[in-house]
Give the backbone structure.
Amino acid sequence: MNVIITGGSRGIGKAIAMQFAAAGHTILLGAGNEASLHTTAAEIRAAWPACTVHTRKADLSIKAQAQAFGNWCLEWGTPGVLVNNAGRFLPGSIHNEEEDTLEKMIETNLYSAYYVTRALLPAMVVQKSGHIFNMCSIASLQAYANGGSYSISKFALLGFSKNLREELKPYNIKVTGILPGAAYTDSWKDSGVDPQRIMEAEDVAKMVFAASLLSPQAVVEDIVLRPQLGDL
């Protein structure tokens, strides 16, 4: 099975790639940092030599590049799983955040998923199977201080997921929203937060992989994960 993961070179995306690679699937990774993509692909091949990994550098916040990435993925066949994980966090409040923050958040956190998905859907509809995961956030459910446009974009991504799920039911294509709280990735390394206080990226990856294993007649609509002690 072909598994596509955007933002797949590090953090949660990388952890998801590792889960599916361990199960022997073909992995297609997209991200903006080519060096990180190559490093992650090399790690996967070293751990699972029989696993096939393809990578493509793309700024998925740009419509044309997101569409081109989706079309490139189809060169390897129709995907069984798509994980729209590409995202970015810019802190701030609506009343005083920098100009164009909303545009940047929407382009990266929503449009990337929208255009990659649209590129792949015709083939998936013909196949009448597949599973799309959208990396939303706890911020999709609850506004919080300094969330600003990031929270708006994640609310929108959850709405995209819900609408897409309804549209794709007749085609046996599942859609799952992933709504994680704080998970320890590179962005937390210099924050001073104790890694034991928040989740591991692998926690999210394991839940995504588990949801992908259900029978065709069952779908996990939303996956909500928080640190055991609650949000920070």
User: Anything to note?
Assistant: Helices lie at 11-22, 34-47, 63-74, 101-127, 148-168, 201-211.
